[in-house]
Amino acid sequence: MQLSKDHIKSINKALNYIEQHLESHLSLEAISKVAHYSPFHFHRIFKAFSNETLHQYIVRKRLEKASAILLRKKDITISELSIRYGFTSNSSFTRAFKKFYGVSPSDFRRQGKGIYSKIRIVKSKIGQPSASFEAYVCDSYQNTKHMPSQIEIKSIAAIHTIGTSCIGVNNLSSTFQNILEWAGPAGLLNQPDFKMATLYYDSFKITAPDKVRMRACLLVDAPLKPDGEMSKGIIHEGKHIIAHHEVHIEAFERVWTELFIHMNNTGYKMRNEPPFEIYHNDFNTHPEKKCLVDLYIPVE
């Protein structure tokens, strides 16, 4: 099925709604109404966009959220998680979890730090680095000798964006290309300091690379009117750990690891907001092929 710009715009609305209501009842009828399509038509376009049925997507997202909590918070019980994410019983939650991860929730919690602790890095095809993000760092990572000197913790003002979502790292390149092709005629690339960013809504620790949801976008001075598949967005104000880097792509794994170590060692906890990176150059034009990039972790 060929998706139109209107289809993608509607899917973006639905994805945002699902993200905000994972702990509530989610039905095909309610979500299709958000997307302004009939349930039958919405189900077709959603599967074409995500390669999953709506039910599969919602169950996966809930299980991934639950798995993240299992690794981070030892005081929450499996019963509490099963209720929070809409499972009818502990046994139904355990069956779904084991089918997805291959182990029970309790075994996942016991084994988690050994198995689900490596940060993986993906190189974007658009000439910009694309880093995967972790909401937590394995306690065994204690080597901070490479900690960057340009790191700060401060509150930022809200940042307006215009862009669109994609699912799967292989789709990030074409998504950025679509944004650039749209932004050129709109005059947004004429500004000498225009910047691009990627927001990550999933952790590569618990989500397969072809399922990770990302938002590719341009930073803008003020909210812009949505246009076709491009929707306005906002990076919320608040406290962030920020690292300023001039590094080769190969160093991204190290600097992201060290940034999360810094968060862990300084006692901060990640807020329920997507981490992101802002690009300041095309590394191919740098004399040493380095990336000028700021990495942001929202914290409380």
From TrEMBL:
Pfam families: GyrI-like, HTH_18. Transmembrane segments: none annotated. One of its GO terms (molecular function) is DNA-binding transcription factor activity. It comes from Psychroserpens burtonensis. Residues 12-111 form the HTH araC/xylS-type domain. InterPro entries: AraC_E-bd, GyrI-like, Homeodomain-like_sf, HTH_AraC, HTH_AraC-typ_CS, Reg_factor_effector_dom_sf, SmbC-like, Tscrpt_reg_AraC-type_HTH. The keyword Transcription applies. SMART domains: AraC_E_bind, HTH_ARAC. It comes from the Bacteria. This is AraC family transcriptional regulator. Keywords: DNA-binding, Transcription, Transcription regulation.
